[in-house]
Design goal:
The chain is built from 15 helices and four strands. With 376 residues, it is mainly alpha-helical. Strand 1, helix 3 and strand 2 form a beta-alpha-beta unit. It is elongated and about 95 Å long.
Amino acid sequence: MKIESLFRLKGMIRKEWLQIIRDPSAIAIAVFLPIFLLLIFGYGISLDAKEVPLAIVVEQHGQATDSFIGSFGANPYFTPRHMGSIQEAENALKNAEVDGIVWLQHTFEQEYLAHQSPPVHLIVNGGDANTARLVEGYVQGIWANWLNQEARLSGRKMNSPLQLEQRIWFNPGVRSTEFLVPGVIAVIMTLIGSLLTALIIAREWERGTMETLLVTRMTVIEMLLGKLIPYFGLGITGLTISLLMGRFVFEVPMRGSLTIILAASVLYLLVALAMGLFISTIARSQFVAALAAMIGTFLPAFILSGFIFDIRSMPPLVQGLTHLIAARYYVAILQTLFLAGDIWPVVLKNSAALLFMGVLFFTLVILKTNRNLEQQ
């Protein structure tokens, strides 16, 4: 790059920094938006069910019955509410006062002492399918643990042909926060990158200052780089805040290399900035550009990236569409690096997809900007 070109690029970067200082909304997007969104998503969204109100109906008390029911009070997932009859419990379920009912009939104690298989009736509100499945699994787990404990205390073996030995990889505590926070970081970087650059060229057209830039000797590459570099610095600031909060506020483990996480994040940030630049070259209104950035980048990243919803459970057509969403590849990289470690097949495959999308969007930005300038 020639000295003259470097001076022009330096002047363009200085112009953008002055614009950022005069209009601090970009700083708010890069600094305060990650903090706000991480706090909202990190604490507000949880796939775990804890302190679920559960109605307990016992028709006839006994030593075994009370021992089993006592297991619910010592469990953090339930808040048991003892009720006198099944009719009272059903009314509470209909009125949304409880999310489930555990009903032990009067024959429970007698059948258990006779070494039979007493039924444990479980009624669950299926309106929230996710909570219903969790409640069902938790109750089955309490029942299995209680049977094992009773068998040990009585010195007899369980009458079960199978013995399940459970091992959970990557997230032993089964905390949904450890799964969600890396995805939240990906969504935040999508929003920051696209919003920061979606407005910059549209703002020049809207304020009538693009004509002033056109009469200079600045090339398209110099203009785009001059606009991109300051916002890249702001994006790195937002990335740093997000990673620090994920590690130290939400205590998500970082089992992979920090260098690889930063490299993949820089690559994705460039892709997000390129997507915002592309939107900015199409829309000449800041309002339209901001709306397009939200609809075209943030919503697909939130819904179709695998951040919350499992891609494999989506219809085949929608699964195919997810390959067009850059955030899908970044979410896969972050979740792997945070929870599993440096799994190179996953990192390299998804990084290659991000590199391709970055080159594609930057090429489209250059071609579209040239075409716009030729039309003036």
